[in-house]
Amino acid sequence: MQIAFRLGTELTVATIIGGLLGYAFDYFFGSKPWGLVVGIVFGVAAGCLGVYRVAMTLTNEEEYNDKD
Amino acid sequence: MESPLHHFEVHTIVPIHIGGLDLSINNAVVAMWVGLAVIGGMFMLPAKKGLSLIPGKLQSVLEIAIEFIRNLVYEFIGEEEGRKYVPFIASLFLFVLACNLIGLLPGSYTITSQLVVTGVFATGIFLMTLVIGFSKHGGHFLSILVPPGIPKILIPVMIPIEIISMLARPISLAVRLFANMTAGHTVLAVLFGLAMTGPLWLGWLPFGFTVIINGLEIAIAFIQAYIFTTLTCVYIGDVIKLH
């Protein structure tokens, strides 16, 4: 159950990191605003993927425990 | 009335300036030293007195703590691989826990409510996982960026996503501990402020809440230290097992 605490921050932080990376890309290559857009999309995807993975491990553990 | 954020301020106690660096001893540093001294003392005391086969009170508490951490490490890293990480994880857990609990004493300083401190912990752990991964798997370690069993077309999309989720780990680790400690202490300070400024027939209500929330904060101190170390174990386990 304690692991579930991380889900909230995981989603937010991944989005922020993606946005920052995209912004940095824009800054160095002058491709405003496409880097930011793509970066945020990747960030959201990364966040969802992280949450999905954690949730899957949690459900797998539960099923495993139910079998006992 | 005092600001609720007053107790997060850093005061210099012994000013030390070497070159352009400000190496002053402030209350945060002192709180850290106290944390180290408490843990060190707690473990040195039974060791000095001589460990007994039938443990005394303090020795049993410490044995339970260490066994708990060892099981945690074995669960997430694996029994053979995890053995050498037990000392590191145990000191991390005990230090974070001691700092969290010391912060709850009135008039002391919560070192884990500083983003700098948790950030340094998290960055150190992140760099450590990179070093472990590269020394264990060499160049093959980069395959952690490609999840197993995905179609080849998706690989260029997955690599940036995986890089972002790798980078998000240390930041979420640092922010979680920092935010939990800061939020809890701010709530306590606000309620105390309400209790002190209100008249007595009203002030007892927020004061009662501070007592309850103090109990909650003790629980949060344990939970956050536990989560911090569990996630460290998960991250180390991830780079060792590579999926």
Question: In words, what does this structure look like?
Answer:
The complex is a heterodimer of chains A (68) and B (243). Chain A is rod-shaped, with a radius of gyration of 16 Å. Chain A contains two helices and no strands. Chain A has helices at residues 6-29, 34-67. Chain A is 85% helix and 0% strand. Chain A has 68 residues and is mainly α. In chain A, 26% of the residues are buried. The mean pLDDT of chain A is 79. In chain A, helix 1 (6-29) runs antiparallel to helix 2 (34-67). Chain B has 243 residues and is mostly helical. In chain B, 72% of the residues lie in helices and 4% in strands. In chain B, the strands form two sheets. Chain B has a two-stranded antiparallel sheet. In chain B, strand 2 (17-18) and strand 3 form a beta hairpin. In chain B, helix 1 packs across helix 4 and helix 2 packs across helix 7 (200-241). The longest helix of chain B is centred in the C-terminal third of the chain and has 43 residues, at 155-197. The radius of gyration of chain B is 22 Å and the shape is globular. The N and C termini of chain B lie far apart (54 Å). The model of chain B has no long low-confidence stretch (mean pLDDT 86). The A-B interface holds A 2-3, 5-6, 9-10, 12-14, 16-18, 21, 42-43, 45-47, 49-50 and B 160-162, 164-165, 167-168, 171-172, 175-176, 179, 223, 226-227, 230-231.
Mean pLDDT of chain B, to the nearest integer, reads 86
**Oligomeric grouping of the chains:** heterodimer
How large is the share of residues in beta strands of chain A? under 5%
Which sequence of strands runs across the widest sheet of chain B?
1-4
- Average pLDDT confidence of chain A is 79
Note poorly predicted spans of chain B: none
Q: Which geometry of chain A do the CA atoms define? A: rod-shaped
What characterizes the major β-sheet of chain B?
2 strands, antiparallel
Percent of residues in beta strands of chain B: under 5%
What keywords describe this structure?
heterodimer; A: 68 residues; mainly alpha; B: mainly alpha; two-stranded antiparallel ribbon
